[in-house]
Structure formats: C-alpha cells, structure tokens
Design goal:
With about 290 residues, the chain is an alpha/beta fold. It is built from eight helices and 13 strands. Helix 1 runs antiparallel to helix 3. It is elongated and about 70 Å long.
Length: about 290
C-alpha cells in the first residue's frame, strides 16, 4: 500500500507539476489551517518569484484541501486591524470553535492569536460565579466570551468545569470587532449577560462595582491601570494584566506592574500568579499577571 503524501509533499508536487519540475522559489513548510481556510506565513510565495495568479492560489488550495487561501500581514492602524490578505475566495468571515465557544470574525479586519489558546482556556474553565467583570479591551470577545462560558463539555456532553460570570462589561472601539462580538454573544446564548461599551474607554467613568478587571492589551496595558483600579469594588478585587517580559525577567516585570498599581493609592496589590502565554518575539514573552487588590 502506497504511503499517503503529507500536505507539504502534496503542495510541493502540485507546484513542481505546474512549473515543469523547477520551483521558482522556496515553499512554506508551515501554515495555519482551520475550516476551509489556510493562512500562509507573511513572506510566502513572493510575487517577484512566483508571479501571483488565480491559478497559483487554486493549486495551493487544492493541494492543501481548502477553499480559501490567505496570507499573513502586519497589524495596522489605531484599531490594530488584521493584516491578513485574502488571495483566493470572496468571504473573510470565519467561525472558530474553541473551549466550547464559537468565535465569529472577519479575518482580514480583526486579529486572532492562536497562541493565546491556553489563556482563553484558563478563563473558560474557571469559576466566576456571581462576579461582575470589566474587560477593558474586548476586541471580538477573546476573553469576554470565556468569562461567560462553562468551558469544554465532557465527551458525553457533560457540563464543563467553568462557571460564568454574572455579567461582563466589554469595552471596544473598533466597529468591526463590535459587530463580531455581538454575533458571538448571540451565537453562544450569552448576549443578555454582556453590556458592550462602544468607543474609547479612556472617556468612560466606570462605577466602582467590579469584582474583576481584564486588561488584555499588548505590548502594554499600562494606560488602563488607573481605570482598572478605579473600577474595582471598594473592598478590592482581581486584575489580570497582560504585558511583555524579557525571558527570565517575568517576576521582575510582575513586581513592577504591582508597584505601579499600588502607587495609584486605592489598594495594596500583590501578585498571585504569572501565566506564561506565548513567545511574542525573540527572548520576549507574553505574560498575564494575576493580581489581588485589597
């Protein structure tokens, strides 16, 4: 029985056939594939070598067994819009299912970080019963939806380990991301447990009613520290602060964040946990610092 070809081998053979046995340049060895879409790394198939055409992208799609082909690009603009470019296909709407949650979004306009899967899972499978949560940088609901989730169900549909927050207030200023967030809230049946605040959260005065605040902004959420501390209940609460840290200096970075928060004068703050989410750049990590404010 003949050994089946790997996706990379299928792609290589199809392109060799198309180019009469001589590839004009290297082909990618990795890509992201989900649903009927493949997203290629940013520098794949440079036009000066490959002479982009609909036929080329059709060959790539057929070899990788998808309908749509896209390529990564730089995040751009004040809304930090996705730089993904659609090369084959007309529709950029995609739905990802993760930790029992459906996230719908326009992948050419809204960012998605597959590397944050563990952090989304950590939230989705935790217990936030009775809590009011403020998500200062909601995007398409990367963390808003997990806060309202019960996490992944068991193999026979058993209830997940997570317990939804009582209510989440989600702040977002990108109109496209807001559209996607609304769709996902409705799709997951939790729209009644979320209030969306549209626009710049720096212009909002939050009541001090929140048990927990999520600050999911990179490279730094520092501009939101004052808002977050001011939104906690008078008795305090929990902050999840995202940021970047040099490899080996994660604890030092966490202490610096706590010092800044404590200096605002409302609470004494302490680190309770540091999550190592993903590599962001060489020798630099995306971390989440869990902080208790009392």
């Amino acid at each position: 029985m003949a050994k089946s070809r790997s996706p990379h081998e299928r792609l290589e053979k199809s392109l060799l056939d198309f180019h009469q046995g001589q590839l004009p340049g290297p082909i990618p060895k990795r890509w992201e594939k989900f649903s009927d879409l493949v997203i290629l790394p940013e520098m794949s198939f440079p036009d000066r070598l490959w002479h982009h055409s609909e036929e080329l992208w059709t060959i790539v799609a057929e070899a990788l067994q998808v309908q749509r082909v896209a390529i990564m690009g730089e995040v751009r603009g004040q809304f930090r819009e996705s730089g993904v470019k659609l090369l084959r296909g007309d529709d950029d709407w995609i739905v990802r299912r993760e930790h029992g949650i459906e996230f719908g979004y326009h992948f050419t306009k809204c960012m998605w970080s597959a590397g944050n899967v563990t952090e989304r899972g950590r939230i989705a499978n935790a217990d936030f019963s009775g809590e009011n949560v403020l998500d200062l940088y909601a995007g398409i609901g990367y963390y808003t939806l997990p806060f309202l989730s019960e996490g992944t169900r068991g193999p026979n549909g058993q209830r997940g380990k997570g317990r939804s927050a009582k209510h989440v207030v989600a702040c977002e200023w990108n109109p496209t991301a807001i559209e996607c967030l609304r769709w996902s809230l409705n799709q997951n049946g939790v729209a009644d447990k979320c209030t969306i605040i549209e626009g710049d959260n720096r212009d909002v005065k939050f009541e001090a009613i929140f048990d927990r605040v999520n600050l999911g902004l990179l490279p730094s959420a520092e501009e939101g520290y004052g808002k977050a501390i001011g939104a906690l209940k008078p008795t305090g609460g929990t902050l999840h602060v995202h940021g970047l840290a040099i490899d080996g200096e994660e604890e030092k970075t966490a202490r610096e964040i706590v010092a800044q928060l404590t200096s605002l004068g409302n609470f004494e703050c302490e680190v309770t946990n540091i999550e190592y989410v993903k590599w962001y750049a060489p020798h630099k990590r995306h971390i989440v610092v869990d902080i208790t404010a009392r």
